[in-house]
Amino acid sequence: MSASPEAPEPPAFATTASYTRRFAERYDSWFGKESLTADTVNFIARLAGSGTALELGVGTGRIALPLARRGVRVEGVDASPEMVARLAAKPGGDRIPVTIGDFTRLPAEGRTVDVVFVAGGTFFELPSQEDQSRCFRHAAGLIGADGAFVLDAIVPEVLVGAEWSGGRVVPNQGEDLVVRHRRFDRAAQRYHSHYVITPGDGSDDVHLHVSFRYAGIGELDLMARAAGLELRERYGSWGGAPFRDGCPYHVSVYRAAR
To answer: For residues 182 and 7, is the Cβ–Cβ distance under 8 A?
Structure first.
């Protein structure tokens, strides 16, 4: 859930976690890092052009709203009515159609979109390999022969090290102190992010816990191939940095297999 540059992790909520109901109104100030948002918007706008982009886990519209202002027709899916209500209350938010539900089970409905994307590490909130594989299959059905499915994800082989797994202060837009501790369970192929937030207004501390089922790049590419997709581009950041050994996360673009 951190917007820190080493790894994208501000989940836009694939699942109805309890904190989506309790803290939707404070999500943007805690995790809405402007530089990461701008890079993501630029990246998706390049792929979508003047077409349609569907965001899986649209949340409060951190990416969807500025993307719409770039001329992209944006749609969203999210499991949290509270997060979507925050989106709808923002200028232009009521013009972004959002489906409330599980984005791994969205039917293609005989139509295609230019880009399906899931950002902020939200893909790994899907709790099993089958859920993640189903997401690939549904994305493949929605993008057709010419579209793109884009996701960002940590590189577990890098982040499992002690340097990345300990406590770390997360920059935020307000006066709150946000500290993240990430713990990996390699036997279960999961990691857990714990956030302790000390509000600047003197109110009680907040503890958030988010659990993720991670997959390495080889497993993700295999899921893609099983869904009829193949990797076309992979970067070390939303800003387009090269993906090299030691990069802690990647941004991957999948298209229909040739």
So the answer is: no
**Rounded Cα distance, 258 and 232, in Å:** 11
Q: Token digits for 135?
A: 């997401």
Nearest to 57, CA basis, from 110, 126, 4: 126
148, 114 in Cβ contact below 8 A?
yes
Global pTM value: 0.86
Rounded Cα–Cα distance for residues 78 and 103 (Å): 7
Q: What is the pLDDT of residues 172-197, one digit of tens each?
A: 667 778 888 888 899 999 988 888 88
Distance CA 121, CA 4 (A): 12
Four-point Cα dihedral 69, 39, 192, 246, nearest 10: 160
Q: Given phi > 0 = left and psi -120 to 50 = alpha, else beta, which region is 3?
A: alpha
